[in-house]
Amino acid sequence: MRITWRTSWLLVTAPATLGAGVSGCRPAQSSPAGGYEVVHGWPALPDGFRMGQVAGLATNSRDEVLVFHRADQSWLREEGMIRRPTILRLDARTGTVLDSLGADLFRNPHGLAVDRDDNIWVTDNNLHQVFKLSPTGRVLLTLGEAGVRGTDAAHFDGVTDVAAAPDGSMYVTDGYGNARVLKFSPTGELLLQWGEPGRGPGQFDLPHGVTLDADGRVYVADRSNVRIQVFTADGTYLHEWKSEALGRPWGLEVAPDGYLYVVDGGDYWLTSQFRSARPDTLPRDRARIHKLDLAGTILTTWGAYGRSDGQMVWPHDITVTRDGAVFVGEVHLGMRVQKFVPSGQR
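User: That's the sequence. What structure does it adopt?
Assistant: C-alpha cells below.
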C-alpha cells in the first residue's frame, strides 16, 4: 500500500505539556541577537555566479563547508536535470569556492551529509534517490530507482535527509511521501527502518532532517508535527521536544561542540498563498536558529525573517565548524548561505 504525503496544518500556539516522554523546550535567556552576528560578504563567490536555493549543508574533515544548491532550478518549477554544478566546496573562513561538482546528476537537491572518509551523501526528493559521491564527485553508490516512488527497501518517496554514523552506516529520512527513517550499511544494505504516518511516538508527518550525537542517538526534525523526536541507534523512541519556543524544526545538526543547532523555518510554507504572491507581498514569518543542549533546553536564539544580512527567508539546513561558526542555507526566495559567529569573534 502506498503511503501518501499527509500534511499537518496545525500551527504552534502553546508549549507542549510536560509528560512521560515529552519535553517542552525552555526558551532562551539571551540577548535579542542571541549572541551571534552575521559575517558580511561571506561567501566570496566568483563574479557572475548565481547561487540557487540552498537545500543542504555539511562540513568535511578539513572543516570546509559543502553546499548543496538547486542552481537555476526551483522546487516549484522542476525542469529536468540540473546542468550546472550543484555541490560547492567552500573555504569556511574566506568563503572562497574551492571546488564545484554534481552537474547533470540531480533534479531537486535536498539533504547532504559527509561520512568519515569525506564521501558526500546527498538526497534528491524528486528522483527519490540517495547518492554516495567520492570527495571529487564520482558516483560510488545509488539507492532507490530514479523517478520511481515506493515503500519497500529498494525505493523511496520524497526522500529528505541523510546523516553519517562513525562506523560508516547512514540514516535516511524518507519524508515527503513516506514517513520513516531507514538505516543502511556503508555499502547500501538496509539494516533497519521505523516509522509510519501519524502524530504519536515514533510516527511522522514529514521527517525532514536527521542528525546523530556522540552516543548514537538519532534526532529527527518531524516538521509537519512541529517537533523533534529522539531515538536510540536502533530506532527505539526516547522522547520528543515540542513547544512554541522551539517552533517548527526544518533542519538540525549536533555540532562538534556537542550542542544541537535547529532551524525554525516558520509556518508560511503550509499555506498556498505564497505560490501566487509577489516576493514583496509575502508576509513576515519566523526564521530563526536555536542552540540547544541535549536535554532540550534552548540556550540561545537568533535570526528574523527578511532579505537583509543576518535575516533569513525559509532557512532550510544548518552546519557548524569546529571553531563554532554556524552556516545557514535558505530555499524559496532566500537562495543563499550565510555565516554566523559568536558575537565579538568576527
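The chain is about 0% helix and 35% strand.
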